[in-house]
Known about the structure:
- The protein has about 375 residues and is α+β, with helices and mostly antiparallel strands.
- It is about 30% helix and about 20% strand.
- The chain has 11 helices and 15 strands.
- The chain has a 4-stranded mixed β-sheet with strand order 10-11-15-14. Strands 1-9-8 form a 3-stranded mixed β-sheet. A two-stranded antiparallel ribbon has the order 2-7.
- Strand 4 (about 190) and strand 5 (about 200) form a beta hairpin.
- Helix 3 packs antiparallel against helix 4.
- The longest helix is centred in the first third of the chain and has 17 residues, at about 45-60.
- Mean pLDDT is about 80; it is low at about 80-125.
- One zinc ion binds near residues 163, 166, 216, 218 and 219.
Amino acid sequence: MSQRDYFEKDYYAVLGVTKDASQADISKAYRKLARDLHPDSRPNDAEAESRFKEVSEAYSVLSNAEKRKEYDQVRDMVGAGAFGGGGPGFGGFGGGAQNINIEDLFGGLFGAGTQGGGSFTSSRRAASTARRGRDVETDLRLSFNDAMAGVTTTLRVAGRAACTVCGGSGAQPGTVPVTCPTCGGAGVTSSNQGLFSFSEPCTTCGGSGRKITDPCTNCRGSGVETRTRDVRTRIPAGVRNGARIRLKGKGEAGAFGGPPGDLFVNVHVEPHELFGQRGDNLTLRMPVTFGEAALGTKLTIPTLSEPVTLKVPAGTESGKTFRVKGKGAPRSGGGRGDLLVTVDVAVPRKLTKTQRKLLEDFAATDDPSALRAHLDRVAANGQEG
Ligand SMILES: [Zn+2]
Ligand SMILES: [Zn+2]
């Protein structure tokens, strides 16, 4: 809390009460808000936590008759424009504040209070406060076939893990943590001594609500140690290259009872020697001879499971793609994509004598002018123009 808080913060608004609210009303409003916003009922809710602090701060001032009077006086001055332009700067403080002893207000209360009282900033938190474990990243390399079929694998993860001696409890084996006697298990203590000592993490238990009477000697009560551990996990069938899988709670162990982080697995899938992948579909290039393409044929196509027969009709052009239903990659929602087979018509590089003779006879019967008629037409037009 800075020294400007009296100027900038409307504690009445924070508690949702009017300026003439009775002490009973203020206490009632505070109790309700504190209950709603308490970190125990709203774990990991940063907004609620910061509201909780605001509310505690407001209550610590308004619940104390003397502080409330000082606060009201400061607020009255702000309202009266005594600070020039209404800004909270202290430069213009000089003449307007006859009724208040500035030294008391800022030197005494704020100075001493800040030193003596507890603040709720994290720096004041005891070292044993419950902490969430960090998220961890790891890489996983899979063969194409394992990625398609799915695989159960073991990931080696380094970092904080549950202590092997106490199993993560932080208590020496044979002993059990007890409910913290200071905070009764709430993890937070409230006190009214000094202006800033209203609500802070319990220093006895560090906010965990439990007290370990006999800390584990291996982890000094934290429940975690740094080591390499194995995480067994199932990678679903059809996982893609570049996929990022989140394994909730499989990251680093939380210390002092905090929740674990997550483990992110970056998947690298080795390319297949035959199959490519396009979304849920697999792709395959299938060389065929000119004769097969021209006359039509039945091809045996490899798939991820048993080979299938593909009928290529007569007169198939090079580059034409055929779809083999349901022989692609597994879909995350069930079922599979298709296998897309593209035929490549191969032109023979070397001909036997017999082949050459046959092809020459064939070429003699073939009329290339029909094939290129549209080109000839365009060329003729060009000459005319
Ligand atoms: Zn331990
Ligand atoms: Zn405690």
